[in-house]
UniProtKB/TrEMBL annotation:
Organism lineage: Archaea, Methanobacteriati, Methanobacteriota, Stenosarchaea group, Halobacteria
Pfam families: GGR_cat
PANTHER family from the UniProt entry: DEHYDROGENASE (FLAVOPROTEIN)-LIKE PROTEIN (PTHR42685:SF21), GERANYLGERANYL DIPHOSPHATE REDUCTASE (PTHR42685)
Source organism: Haloarcula mannanilytica
Annotated ranges, domain Digeranylgeranylglycerophospholipid reductase catalytic: 154-209
Domain of life of the native organism: Archaea
The name this protein goes by in its record: Digeranylgeranylglycerophospholipid reductase catalytic domain-containing protein
């Protein structure tokens, strides 16, 4: 999605664009990141034909104190989801690629780029936009794959079954590990279901954990053959200065830039924003400002996410449950992208606010983020 956004942005700005895709858009099977927020930023009509299936009314969030049969729910809230769709992501990508092709963008499908190709591209093209995920092709070609600081592992699958109890809403469930499970219905009879963990909390058997999550939450259990494994950056996971490599004529966008949300792993709207931002600044001759502009846009989101994540890491579902109840009613995209709205809501609950921000390690994380220390202080 970041690469498509960058191709669209640079094409609109008058650049001659060539887009390289490792797979074929006709056969590409992508079922990760199918809940898309801020879809109005995508230059496609949000129709079923373009892959936008369920105009999501709201996201339901529940917090539990564990995964055992006798677990207790510590909090729940419903968050409106304006400008959000549950999608068939592969169809969205295919439709966007077709639109770009019709506009004259030269698209090379089934084209894997080797490290040798990368170095040739940096000589041949004025600019290479790296949207190859984490670790990025830039890192592999330059021998710096260890420059990323963390990632999450997620399993998800498209399943058929009875989702009439939930549809058209979606549900995220926090279960007292650093991660969560979800069900994103596309129709009343089909949904994307999944589970994700930070590296420190990932289980020994991924599929067993996914099956058990589906069973305890009442969702159809997917087969292993239909299950996708995704690696998601824990944003910020790359030094901002590394998102633009002028000495190699490279700029990184999306997961390659390490900008997914540190708490949820959500990164589609962030990826699209990064692609268009790179094009906007290049058009102004200001690409050197890209790292600072990108990080400043994401900074408050990162800080807020790492604060909330602290209560997952330290196993404190009561505080999380209370925070979810207090924040209910805020648009789901604003929870990530405009955390000041959540903070203002929390200030209405001074006891809860104090329980969250009176902890030294939480304040250390806020201070580390505010002072641009890359690996936030624990």
């Amino acid at each position: 999605m970041a690469g498509l956004a960058a191709a669209a942005g640079f094409d609109d700005a008058g650049f001659v664009v060539e887009l390289y895709e490792r797979q074929s858009y006709d056969s590409k099977g992508v079922n990760c990141g199918e809940a898309m927020t801020a879809v109005s930023k995508i230059p496609l009509e949000p129709t079923v034909e373009n892959g936008f299936l369920n105009p999501l009314p709201a996201m339901e969030v529940e917090v539990y104190d564990g995964i055992d049969a006798d677990r207790h729910r510590t909090g729940a809230g419903t968050f409106p989801a304006a400008d959000t769709y549950i999608t068939d992501r592969n169809v969205v990508e295919q439709s966007w690629a077709e639109q770009l092709s019709e506009k004259g963008v030269d698209i090379h499908e089934n084209q894997s780029i080797t490290r040798t190709d990368f170095h040739e591209f940096t000589d041949e093209y004025d600019l290479v936009v790296d949207a190859t995920g984490q670790p990025s092709l830039s890192s592999k070609a330059l021998g710096t794959t260890n420059e990323y600081s963390g990632y999450m592992v997620a399993l998800n699958s498209d399943v058929e079954g009875d989702f009439t109890e939930l549809y058209p809403n979606s549900r995220i469930i926090l279960e007292n590990y650093t991660g969560y499970s979800w069900a994103f219905p596309k129709t009343s009879q089909r949904a994307n279901v999944g589970i994700g963990w930070t590296v420190s909390d990932r289980p020994n058997d991924y599929m067993k954990a996914l099956r058990e999550a589906c069973e305890r939450n009442g969702w159809p259990v997917p087969s292993q053959e239909r299950t996708n494994v995704a690696i998601i950056p824990e944003g910020p996971s790359l030094d901002p200065d590394r998102t633009h490599l002028p000495e190699h004529s490279v700029v990184r966008v999306g997961d390659a830039a390490g900008i997914a949300n540190r708490l949820t792993g959500k990164g589609i709207s962030q990826a699209i924003e990064s692609g268009f931002l790179a094009a906007e600044l290049a058009n102004r001759g200001q690409l050197h400002n890209y790292p600072d502009r990108l990080y400043q846009r994401m900074k408050t989101e990162y800080i807020f996410a790492t604060v909330v994540r602290y209560f997952l890491e330290t196993r404190n579902p009561k505080v999380l449950g209370a925070a979810i109840r207090a924040a209910a009613g805020i648009d789901i995209e604003d929870v990530d992208r405009s955390p000041s709205t959540v903070l203002l809501r929390l200030l209405r609950h001074p006891v809860l606010f104090a329980r969250i921000f009176s902890r030294r390690r939480v304040l250390n994380r806020v201070y580390g983020g505010m002072t641009n220390q890359w690996e936030l202080i624990d």
